[in-house]
């Protein structure tokens, strides 16, 4: 996610999965171990594990493995629902095999599943679906034995109270996590966005340099841009006019340089990370930008820029690319400003000269 982009609900689900990954994987794995142990150690079972129970156990294991293995949010959400349903079914079937001695266990198992999902389900709709599906599965398998001798009125009141508490816990947890995530995202954006121009700042731009895509069919270019005579603009027209020039230039960069990652390095310096087929395409883009700058005249102020361009090539470090672009930019200044100079040390620059 780029620093100038706001987080989305999909990003929130990824955040939730990341925060819950370790505890959920641990608890689901532990639950599988407990189920196996209960079938081996339960003295009240009238028979061994049935074929249906074995199938459910395999399904639970495969669902848990898939959730841990693949980062898909859809798989995570659907897997949580299916895991809870299968867990409730295998628990209810085991209780039924205990010939009435296991009836007191089914309600605590159901409540435990409800409360567990209240804390690990990333959507209120998923939580509601799990509560309804597991409750229906328990009643379908156990029937009236689910009430364990309780009066129907008291049993209904207990189930309703636990249902409301589980939904409330889930809603409270999601609200807190939602607020925390988007607050952190806003702090991230504030830390990585230039407050004047609203484009990425030096920190975000240089971080992107380290994360640039590997070289494939297209080439990567680093463009260092410096506005010409910016100090004279501030001295003659005032700093408010200078700020207006910076904002105007940033807007032109965003509009004309796509697709690219750009940012304000500091003062009147800007940087562009471009992916293009050739250096001539970079040259054409910068010429269009120069023409747009000449026609802009924000607040009646004329301005121009000088730029140095260097390419990322195998065997050349990022530090060397930055140094070559810096030297090329100062060469553009010495040549009379309002120039674009390509670093001579980059082997792909010949076609732009």
Automatic annotation (TrEMBL):
Residues 218-345 form the GGDEF domain. It catalyses: 2 GTP = 3',3'-c-di-GMP + 2 diphosphate. It is an enzyme of class 2 (transferase). GO terms for molecular function: diguanylate cyclase activity. Keywords: Membrane, Transmembrane, Transmembrane helix. GO terms for biological process: cell adhesion involved in single-species biofilm formation; negative regulation of bacterial-type flagellum-dependent cell motility. GO terms for cellular component: plasma membrane. Its EC number is 2.7.7.65. The chain crosses the membrane at residues 20-42, 48-66, 73-93, 105-121, 128-148, 154-174. This is diguanylate cyclase.
């Amino acid at each position: 996610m780029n620093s100038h982009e706001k987080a989305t609900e999909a990003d929130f689900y990824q955040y939730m999965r990341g925060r819950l990954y370790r505890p959920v994987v641990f608890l689901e794995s532990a639950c599988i171990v407990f189920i196996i142990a209960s079938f081996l150690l339960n003295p009240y079972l009238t028979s061994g594990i049935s074929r249906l129970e074995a199938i459910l156990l395999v399904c639970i294991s495969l669902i848990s493995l898939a959730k841990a293995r693949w980062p898909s949010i859809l798989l995570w959400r659907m897997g949580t629902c299916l895991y809870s349903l299968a867990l409730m079914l295998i628990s209810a079937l085991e209780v039924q095999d205990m010939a009435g001695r296991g009836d007191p266990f089914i309600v605590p198992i159901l409540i435990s599943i409800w409360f567990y999902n209240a804390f690990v389900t990333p959507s209120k709709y998923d939580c509601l679906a799990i509560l309804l599906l597991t409750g229906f599965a328990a009643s379908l398998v156990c029937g009236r034995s689910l009430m364990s001798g309780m009066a129907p009125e008291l049993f209904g009141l207990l189930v309703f109270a636990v249902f409301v508490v589980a939904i409330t816990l889930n809603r409270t947890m999601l609200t807190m996590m939602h607020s925390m995530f988007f607050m952190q995202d806003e702090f991230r954006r504030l830390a990585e966005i230039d407050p004047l121009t609203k484009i990425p700042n030096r920190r975000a731009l240089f971080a992107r340099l380290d994360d640039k895509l590997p070289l494939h069919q297209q080439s990567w270019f680093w463009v260092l841009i410096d506005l010409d005579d910016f100090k004279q603009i501030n001295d003659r027209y005032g700093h408010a006019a200078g700020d207006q020039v910076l904002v105007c230039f940033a807007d032109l960069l965003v509009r004309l340089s796509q697709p690219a990652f750009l940012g304000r390095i500091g003062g009147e310096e800007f940087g562009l990370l471009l992916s293009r087929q050739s250096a001539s395409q970079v040259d054409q883009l910068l010429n269009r930008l120069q023409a747009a700058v000449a026609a802009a005249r924000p607040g009646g102020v004329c301005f121009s820029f000088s730029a140095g361009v260097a390419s990322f090539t195998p065997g050349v470090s990022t530090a060397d690319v930055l140094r070559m672009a810096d030297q090329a930019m100062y060469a553009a200044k010495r040549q009379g400003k309002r120039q674009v100079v390509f670093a001579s040390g980059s082997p792909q620059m010949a076609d732009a000269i």
